[in-house]
């Protein structure tokens, strides 16, 4: 992996701590709400509110991030995440009554954190270090996913439910506080330019603009995320009725993801993204098939391990190529905040589309077979995303081949002698 500078490494640590705090409690929030309500629809509307407010926050806070201190947005997002878990902690089982406002609060918190984090990520990395950064981010995220949910599940089970939930929510609050303190070592980054509220929309309306193909690829990514981000963990709990089993599931799948992110981050150079991403999108679709046989802990584990194994082949080139496109010119880079907002708009639209399918299907039937068909339906959408992004990957592949050809010709050329 290419070497990252100190600011990039520090951002990785802050991002990892944010991930640890969310992994401790976030995995179990849908379970907590479902246990209080036993309503798939309530979980759906909680998540829908989270997505909508998260997307709107990206758009609105983009002005602050571009024109003022983006680090305050990052810290504010972490602080509001702490407020969210504190609210769940204080409300207890009454949280089901406030599910939609809680989802909105969590969406605002996540929006504030991630728009700042994505912009700073762009500023502290270069095209040749972004795959490395994303590989490390996946590694650290997987490490957090290995231990945090497992510990949480064990604590919840051992302390018989409510006390365990209170403890893990409190631990998350402490980690959020520590990450805010650590973020003060990230340099205050210079604000440049004036925020253009409709810049992204104009890119999409301009004929021949590269974002007209990139945007639907991002939407396709969001469709899958909109359902998988919460339904898989909830399905594992409903299949087992045991939080410790959900923690173990997360431990195993995250360990596989850790190894896979490390390997893919090391192997997946720009000229390999085209083939690697195709393998990734096909395989994360095929691993859903065992669930048609039976929705059990064993088949869910097979699905989870397969997803963890192949997801890095999809997500690393997808993320890297989007940010490479943002930085392809000085003009484009000067509008990085608007492009980060445009990327999030695509993810939000996709997530809302995927979640809308969930909200339509589940009131009709919540049988295991229906849930499996839903997972398959949204799970194959990234294949369309690969098709949309394919020209960008082919272009990189051709550029690398041409560069290698010129290097060989230059190496064979002999210097003239007098």
TrEMBL record:
GO CC annotations on file: plasma membrane
Membrane-spanning ranges: 39-61, 73-92, 98-121, 133-152, 164-186, 222-240, 246-264, 276-293, 299-319, 340-364, 370-389
A GO MF label: transmembrane transporter activity
Topology class, membrane: Multi-pass membrane protein
Keywords tagged on the record: Membrane, Transmembrane, Transmembrane helix
Membrane listed as a keyword: yes
InterPro entries for the chain: MFS (IPR011701), MFS_trans_sf (IPR036259), Sugar_transport-like (IPR052528)
Identification of the protein by name: MFS transporter
Subcellular location per the Swiss-Prot or TrEMBL entry: Cell membrane
Major place of residence: membrane
Pfam entry (one): MFS_1
Keyword match Membrane: yes
């Amino acid at each position: 992996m290419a070497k990252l500078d100190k600011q990039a490494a520090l951002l990785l640590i802050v991002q990892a701590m944010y991930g640890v705090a969310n992994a401790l409690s976030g995995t179990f929030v849908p379970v907590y709400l479902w246990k209080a309500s036993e309503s798939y629809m309530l979980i759906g509307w909680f998540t829908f509110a989270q997505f909508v407010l998260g997307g709107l926050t990206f758009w609105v806070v983009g002005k602050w991030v571009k024109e003022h201190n983006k680090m305050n947005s990052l810290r504010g997002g972490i602080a509001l995440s702490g407020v969210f878990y504190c609210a769940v902690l204080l409300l207890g089982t009454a949280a089901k009554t406030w599910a939609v406002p809680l989802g909105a609060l969590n969406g605002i918190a996540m929006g504030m954190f991630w728009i700042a984090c994505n912009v700073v990520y762009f500023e502290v990395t270069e095209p040749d270090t972004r795959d490395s950064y994303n590989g490390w981010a996946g590694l650290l995220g997987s490490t957090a996913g290995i231990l945090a949910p497992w510990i949480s599940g064990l604590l919840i089970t051992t302390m018989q439910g409510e006390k365990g939930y209170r403890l893990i929510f409190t631990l998350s609050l402490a980690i959020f506080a520590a990450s805010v303190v650590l973020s003060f070592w990230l340099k205050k980054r210079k604000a440049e330019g004036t925020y253009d509220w409709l810049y992204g929309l104009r890119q999409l309306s301009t004929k021949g603009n590269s974002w007209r193909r990139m945007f639907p690829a991002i939407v396709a990514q969001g469709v899958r995320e909109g359902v998988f981000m919460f339904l898989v963990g909830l399905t594992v709990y409903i299949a087992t009725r045991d939080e410790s089993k959900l923690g173990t599931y997360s431990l195993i799948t995250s360990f596989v993801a850790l190894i896979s992110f490390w390997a893919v981050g090391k192997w997946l150079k720009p000229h390999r993204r085209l083939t690697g991403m195709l393998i990734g999108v096909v395989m994360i679709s095929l691993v859903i098939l065992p669930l048609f046989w039976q929705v059990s802990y064993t088949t869910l584990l097979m699905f989870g391990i397969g997803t963890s194994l192949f997801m890095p082949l999809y997500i690393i080139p997808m993320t890297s190529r989007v940010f490479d496109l943002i930085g392809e010119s000085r003009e484009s880079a000067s509008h990085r905040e608007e492009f980060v907002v445009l990327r999030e708009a695509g993810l939000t639209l996709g997530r809302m589309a995927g979640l809308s399918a969930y909200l339509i299907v589940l009131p009709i039937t919540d049988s295991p077979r229906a849930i499996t068909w839903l997972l398959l339906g949204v799970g194959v959408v990234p294949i369309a995303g690969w098709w949309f992004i394919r020209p960008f990957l082919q272009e990189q592949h051709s550029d690398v081949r041409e560069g290698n050809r010129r290097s060989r010709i230059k190496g064979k050329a002999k210097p003239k002698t007098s």
